[in-house]
Here is the input.
Amino acid sequence: MALGKSAAVVIGSFDLGESDRVVTFYSREHGKVRGVAKASRRMRSRFGGALELFTLGELVFFDTGRTDLVRVDHFDVLDPFAAIRTDLERLGQGAWIVECVNRLTAERDPHAALFGLLTRALRALASAAGPPRVAICFGARCLDVLGHRPRLDRCVECGRAYPFARPALDEGGVVCEACAAHATGATSISPAAVAALGRLRAAGWEEALTQPLGRVEAELRNALESHMTRLIGQPTRTAKFLREVRRLSETSGERR
Ligand SMILES: [Zn+2]
Here is the structure.
């Protein structure tokens, strides 16, 4: 039995019984932690609105050692990143970011660099930065931090040196045309998008957020979603939500 304390971000939650909630945090000191916030759905809960998705706070929990679930004692808000919840595109990309963290990490496996990346991405999303770009910069760096950095310098199947005319992206990195024909999970990616991914990885965070990408931006966003799907083993839940948001904004644009 032990008391734990760490800066943490709310990355998911679901209701439990009449008034409790199970909350998933990504913390700097302990990695992913799931805990029960007792009576948090009551009107006068001591948690107030602190347990909203994306909220960064100081988490204090009690680990009984009897189950994987801890008891959430306190969560004092440091930054609610409220602006992320004010428009659907920000909300959707933010949900994708926290879902990636949730599904690519194991419980109690801390990665301080991933925690730093997560808070940097949420801060950018809550400010003026373009939501899809924040997701791209987060996605590319998240793969690096967790040891899934795709190789871009040669075909991961046969070793042939890049560039090739029609590359594809598979779990370990780029594959050449010949190998892509046999790799069932590989998805095509344009040479321009491969080059852009390389540039974004080499750039600093602020520079990567503002670097002009032109038409390749949408392709890169899709390529990262496909890559996350390969790693997780199924599409992210938020990918569908984002497609709906986009369809909605396209139809309202036509009416204007
Ligand atoms: Zn090859």
The two ends are 60 Å apart (CA to CA).
